[in-house]
């Protein structure tokens, strides 16, 4: 016979162990444990008087408070809690999950604590592990944003915690290319980036009125970047991809000043009219503490019935690489050449990065393999 004191002690042990398991459940937006965030407000274990497969059966009620009512990731969190509870080895636990939302006071305190932990720009503090790649071009129309979107999607598919900022304020396109059509969740002034294909994304194009003409100048552009960095909860991603505006204007300088640890990747096409201008975007590194990591040549050739057609000429990427290597006095390699493929455009317009299959895994074709090699090279 089990004494009542032993049974109560057993219940307490189960509740403690369940809490320990729930501490491994991570909020998908905030990137922190749901217990650390104060989302678990109660756990109660009530044993039944039956045995199942040699193990006692216990009803476990878990009371959860989400950060906002109607959170779009509610079911994902509930499923993770169910998995954590039912994986308990010593007993058969039957979960009952009661879902509520935090009070305004509790949410305010949580946001204040998160902001205090961040202390403004989280990507420019000592010891930060995030590798930052700013994708630049000398002119528009060379496929810079397409490269940014597919590179970010490749990083995410390889298992890296990936973030992407659309810093092309006038010509934002990352939301379309990544299929990130939602709006950021606002937690008392702190924004949650929209996640698509595993990439946490922020763009001015996600906000109401962004379809109107934007006439911002230097200070306001700089402030928009600071807000994307400090007013958005990114967690601590492994990699951040920044899609810059073409040229060497205010936003490029703002990124260099705000994120001196960023590495520049220059995108060009083969013809001299593009490659000559692309060199200028790399020469920004002579004026600011930024390293140019390498060059990507887009639209290098077109395969037509087995014949390789160089529609836009040849050698643009190599010319940019050579000129930047001479000017900067360190090796600026040609990292990748990308063929001209209609699938790249079509998939981008559909919000599906061409490097991914329908399940979000890296696709098995030449272009995906090229981006995978590029991502691995950049992360070395």
Automatic annotation (TrEMBL):
Record carries keyword Transferase: no
Domain MIP18 family-like per the UniProt entry, residue ranges: 16-90
A GO biological-process term: iron-sulfur cluster assembly
Annotated GO MF terms: 4 iron, 4 sulfur cluster binding; ATP binding; ATP hydrolysis activity; ATP-dependent FeS chaperone activity; metal ion binding
Keywords of this entry: ATP-binding, Hydrolase, Iron, Iron-sulfur, Metal-binding, Nucleotide-binding
The family this protein is said to belong to: Belongs to the Mrp/NBP35 ATP-binding proteins family.
Subunit structure and binding partners: Homodimer.
Described function: Binds and transfers iron-sulfur (Fe-S) clusters to target apoproteins. Can hydrolyze ATP.
Protein known as: Iron-sulfur cluster carrier protein
């Amino acid at each position: 016979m089990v004494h009542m004191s032993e049974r109560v002690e057993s219940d307490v042990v189960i509740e403690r162990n369940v809490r320990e398991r729930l501490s491994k459940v991570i909020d998908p937006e905030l990137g922190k444990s749901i217990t650390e965030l104060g989302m678990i407000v109660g756990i109660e274990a009530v044993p039944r008087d039956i045995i199942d497969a040699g193990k006692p059966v216990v009803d476990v009620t878990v009371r959860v408070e989400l950060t906002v009512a109607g959170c779009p990731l509610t079911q994902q969190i509930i499923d993770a809690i169910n998995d954590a509870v039912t994986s308990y080895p010593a007993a058969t636990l039957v979960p009952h999950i009661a879902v509520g939302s935090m009070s305004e006071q509790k949410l305010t305190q949580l946001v204040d604590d998160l902001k205090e932990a961040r202390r403004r720009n989280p990507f420019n503090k000592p010891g930060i592990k995030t590798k930052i790649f700013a994708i630049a071009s000398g002119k528009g129309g060379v496929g810079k944003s397409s490269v940014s979107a597919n590179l970010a999607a490749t990083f995410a598919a390889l298992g890296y915690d990936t973030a992407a900022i659309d810093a092309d304020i006038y010509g934002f396109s990352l939301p379309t290319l990544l299929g990130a059509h939602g709006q950021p969740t606002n937690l008392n002034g702190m924004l949650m980036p929209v996640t698509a294909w595993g990439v946490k994304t922020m763009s001015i194009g996600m906000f109401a009125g962004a379809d109107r003409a934007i006439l911002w100048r230097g200070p306001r552009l700089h402030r928009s970047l600071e807000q994307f960095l400090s007013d958005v909860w990114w967690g601590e991603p492994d990699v951040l991809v920044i899609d810059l505006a073409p040229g060497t204007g205010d936003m490029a300088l703002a990124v260099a000043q705000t994120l001196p640890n960023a590495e520049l990747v220059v995108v060009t096409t083969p013809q001299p009219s593009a490659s000559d201008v692309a060199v200028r975007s790399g020469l920004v590194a002579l004026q600011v503490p930024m390293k140019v990591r390498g060059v990507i040549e887009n639209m290098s050739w077109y395969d037509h019935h087995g014949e390789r057609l160089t529609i836009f000429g040849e050698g643009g990427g190599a010319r940019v690489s050579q000129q930047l290597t001479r000017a900067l006095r360190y090796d600026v390699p040609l990292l990748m050449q990308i063929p001209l493929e209609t699938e790249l455009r079509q998939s981008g317009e559909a919000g599906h990065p061409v490097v991914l299959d329908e399940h979000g895994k890296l696709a098995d074709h030449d272009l995906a393999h090229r981006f995978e090699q590029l991502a691995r090279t950049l992360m070395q």
